[in-house]
């Protein structure tokens, strides 16, 4: 038996305590006959009278049942008069118990008391704060087991400009001092991560208590004991549905964790940037201003738009921005990798990239390092969709023949893309339209040229497939597959210069590279490159090439008909000769007879 149970067992030997138990049972019986809120106030008054008559006993009898009745009386639908009467009961119980016993039995009474602040009327809050100040602050570090719930109950009352803001803020400061700051802020971040309604006041409290006169190194207690938990809380805050929460979270990131901070690991910063980029999709100017100020750390200079080769003068990029661009690249690759396997297809990353490419301080810098992963994402998203559809069809129509399940699942079907991925292709083209018409094809030329430089470093040169996002620059076979795919989904006809200049340049680049470096290529790379050149030619001269193919087909058909006619003629001659021979043989037999 526990100490409290033993103590209660000993008290039961006292006749006055047994009378106390009987009186409490009788008072609790009144709650069973309540039909309206006035009956609850009456029942609480009778219970309070009993408790006040036996204040010399620190052990409250039937405390579990009492706590349940009090929690019921804290229901948001009940009027403030019931709440006030129930708070009076709590105060009597806590005064009877004392601090030491309250620390042991806090879990019994906290379920009804902690949620009250969020929906309490203004005349209730002073009484509730008095109970916390009188009975909970003296607990100091013994409040730790219930601290997360306590903060979730108190933080809703931390409304800036409200009558009780200063008093609530002082209460939290006193609790922080009692439980030790690092543990206090650990619980703050736990509330931010898991409890959406308290995110705004919690982040505001952290911002208020961050001193800009000191370095973050001197205020590490604000991060708590678990940095991963803090990062999770900030990620949840910048992705919250409330714009006010997102603003506060971005303000905190700008002030406490700039791009050059030394407190967070690179992986943690990538997580934060990945989560923060989602704010762009809200198209809110206040959020965008905060996000770009955090990423760039200052008002950026006017930078030129995308050049012909997609290169930006590196002297115009501040050196301290290089970390931000690396983080941005890795964050975008994570977003693209995630969306490439989602069903249904997620088009948000393409809208996000459209906004980023329009930003002159960001788009030209990250474009070349992220564009080939955008191509991969497009291809892999369509391929994943195709695999999902074909697997469901095969499962439905499976007839027991295992050979029917064999399929080349890594080859993307053009007809499938046209029929099932229209929305994805539409948003991808909106993204590509932010670039100049020649840029994608000149970028492919550059990729093809660079892949030749690193051709001997590729481990699997014969693997004819698209690699996963973030796996580095593509090799020659992958470039051929992606270019073939782009030729199908990008409407070349919409570009006036495409067929007259851009695609011929691409064709010339591939052919000349093949001719000059033919010894460096293997059989598969030569074959795929030539097939790609054929595909480009169909886009440059679709009519002429189609007619040529048609003529070749007709010629083949004519020769096939001619051969068939000759064979049928020969067979008919053989049959006729056979008939003549048979007739002559019959004639000879008749003569002999």
From TrEMBL:
Keywords: Protein transport, Transport. GO terms for biological process: Golgi to endosome transport; protein transport. InterPro entries: DOP1, DOP1_N. Residues 14-299 form the DOP1 N-terminal domain. The keyword Heme does not apply. GO terms for cellular component: cytosol; endosome; trans-Golgi network. The keyword Transport applies. It comes from the Eukaryota. Coiled coil: none annotated. Belongs to the DOP1 family. This is DOP1 N-terminal domain-containing protein. It comes from Rhamnusium bicolor.
């Amino acid at each position: 038996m526990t100490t409290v149970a033993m103590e209660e067992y000993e008290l039961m030997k006292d006749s006055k305590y047994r009378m106390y138990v009987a009186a409490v049972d009788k008072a609790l019986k009144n709650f069973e006959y309540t039909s309206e809120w006035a009956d609850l106030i009456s029942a609480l008054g009778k219970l309070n009278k009993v408790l006040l008559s036996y204040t010399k006993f620190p052990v409250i009898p039937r405390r579990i049942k009492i706590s349940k009745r009090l929690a019921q009386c804290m229901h948001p639908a009940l009027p403030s008069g019931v709440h006030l009467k129930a708070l009076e009961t709590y105060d009597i119980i806590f005064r009877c118990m004392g601090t030491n016993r309250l620390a042991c039995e806090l879990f019994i009474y906290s379920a009804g008391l902690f949620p009250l602040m969020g929906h309490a009327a203004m005349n209730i809050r002073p009484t509730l704060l008095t109970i916390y100040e009188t009975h909970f602050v003296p607990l100091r570090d013994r409040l730790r087991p219930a601290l997360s719930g306590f903060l979730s109950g108190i933080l809703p009352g931390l409304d800036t400009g409200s009558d009780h803001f200063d008093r609530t803020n002082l209460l939290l400061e006193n609790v922080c001092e009692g439980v030790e700051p690092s543990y206090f802020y650990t619980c703050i971040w736990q509330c931010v991560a898991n409890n959406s309604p308290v995110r705004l006041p919690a982040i505001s409290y952290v911002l208020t208590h961050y001193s800009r006169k000191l370095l973050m190194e001197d205020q590490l207690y604000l991060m708590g004991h678990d940095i991963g938990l803090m990062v999770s809380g900030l990620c949840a805050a910048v992705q919250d549905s409330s714009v006010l929460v997102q603003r506060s979270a971005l303000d905190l990131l700008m002030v406490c964790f700039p791009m050059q901070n030394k407190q967070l690991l690179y992986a943690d910063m990538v997580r934060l940037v990945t989560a923060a980029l989602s704010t762009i999709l809200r198209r809110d100017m206040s959020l965008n201003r905060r996000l770009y100020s955090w990423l760039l750390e200052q008002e950026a200079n006017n930078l030129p738009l995308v050049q012909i080769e997609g290169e930006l003068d590196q002297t115009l990029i501040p050196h301290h921005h290089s970390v931000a661009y690396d983080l941005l690249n890795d964050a975008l690759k994570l977003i693209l990798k995630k969306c490439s396997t989602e069903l249904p297809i997620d088009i948000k990353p393409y809208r996000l990239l459209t906004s980023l490419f329009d930003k002159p301080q960001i788009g030209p810098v990250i474009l070349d390092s992220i564009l080939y992963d955008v191509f991969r994402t497009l291809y892999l998203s369509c391929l994943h969709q195709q695999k999902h559809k074909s697997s469901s069809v095969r499962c439905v129509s499976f007839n027991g023949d295992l050979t029917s399940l064999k399929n080349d699942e890594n080859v993307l079907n053009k007809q499938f893309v046209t029929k099932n991925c229209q929305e994805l292709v539409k948003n991808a083209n909106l993204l590509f339209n932010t670039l100049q018409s020649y840029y994608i094809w000149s970028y492919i030329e550059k990729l093809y040229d660079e892949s030749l430089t690193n051709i001997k470093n590729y481990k699997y040169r014969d693997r004819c497939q698209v690699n996963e996002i973030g796996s580095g620059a593509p090799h020659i076979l992958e470039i051929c597959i992606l270019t073939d795919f782009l030729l199908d989904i990008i409407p070349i006809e919409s570009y006036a210069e495409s067929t007259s200049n851009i695609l011929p340049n691409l064709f010339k680049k591939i052919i000349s590279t093949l001719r000059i470096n033919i010894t460096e290529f293997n059989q598969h790379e030569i074959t795929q490159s030539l097939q790609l050149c054929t595909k480009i030619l169909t886009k440059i001269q679709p009519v002429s090439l189609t007619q040529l193919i048609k003529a070749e087909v007709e010629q083949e058909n004519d020769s096939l008909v001619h051969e068939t006619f000759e064979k049928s003629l020969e067979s008919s001659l053989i049959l006729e000769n056979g008939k003549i021979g048979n007739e002559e043989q019959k004639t000879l037999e008749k003569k002999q007879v």
